[in-house]
Amino acid sequence: MTTITVLRGDGIGPEIMDATLHVLDAMQLGLQYEFAGAGMVALEKHGELLPQATLDSIARNKIALKSPLTTPVGEGFSSINVELRKRFDLYANVRPAKSFPNTKSRFPAGVDLVTVRENTEGAYIGEGQQVSDDGATATLTQKVTRKGSERIVRYAFDLARNTGRKKVTVVHKANILKSTSGLFLKVAREVAAQYPEIQCNELIVDNCCMQLVMKPEQFDVIVTTNLFGDIISDLCAGLVGGLGLAPGANIGEHAAIFEAVHGSAPDIAGKGIANPCALLLAAGQMLDHLGQPEQAARLRSAIVATLEAKDALTPDLGGEGNTLSFAKAIASRL
Ligand code: ATP
Ligand code: MG
């Protein structure tokens, strides 16, 4: 019996979580849910955006399934998501991008890639941000470490090995950023040498973006530093149908959090029409992580079959279904 922490979230969060749990229940996996509060709901109930009880629950169960959370401006920390990443040292941000049928996307077939983004260092974390007194000069420290690079590249190669993927592309800018990107690339080459059965190639980030837009089928696993990964993973989500279908995982040694990439979508909250697929696909990633790849595949197949049949699709996919009818249609195809 596995217990997971469930954060129902804000905005459309509770609606897509209910739909997702409906499908997981139908799978009869013996999962136990421990509901915990975070975001606006927790702020109103407990006076805290990220209560200690929630952190304890995640630490205990090591696995959380999380709906989008709203961070109000000026509430102590910049983002609850970033805070969770820091607290649990969730160093790997893993974002699959796969073509799905009947979605409004440029590549309705052929794309099946995973972006593995370093989540804890580099320019993205904004270390040493300063603007001079006269406002004329802005600076930022960018730090990349051997340890940080090694564990993320190793994560990417292990993922390839464990999921039968064949190629890892190391994305960098070492020709210009010789120190930081240079160290990342150097360490990546060392790690790659320990996985002789996995093909490793290197690509400069600008070229990578062009290749992704023109020939995304050539990619399998992409591993890169924090800021490049931030941009590339959204680019990849856009290739295959956008936010409603983009799941993500934040993984560390002691905990892993699975989530939809999109936000709380206040514009459609409470209407029951949000697309639950991103969170469902995140639940699929969670099942992979829990060592149940056949169940993850079962879930994904049911989602694909429902998209193929255009059965009860939500309005964002051009359908006339709603969050729950879509989830029920998926559950019926498990
Ligand atoms: P937040 O501030 O929490 O990020 P947001 O409004 O920026 O909220 P996003 O998720 O970034 O929310 O949404 C951008 C747009 O995409 C919105 O118009 C939203 O309605 C739509 N959208 C996001 N997620 C979904 C979904 N699961 N189903 C349908 N539409 C969605
Ligand atoms: Mg947003």
TrEMBL record:
Keywords: Oxidoreductase. One of its GO terms (molecular function) is magnesium ion binding. Pfam families: Iso_dh. InterPro entries: IsoCit/isopropylmalate_DH_CS, IsoPropMal-DH-like_dom. One of its GO terms (biological process) is isocitrate metabolic process. Its EC number is 1.1.1.41. Residues 3-330 form the Isopropylmalate dehydrogenase-like domain. Belongs to the isocitrate and isopropylmalate dehydrogenases family. This is Isocitrate dehydrogenase. The lineage of its organism: Bacteria, Pseudomonadati, Pseudomonadota, Gammaproteobacteria, Lysobacterales.
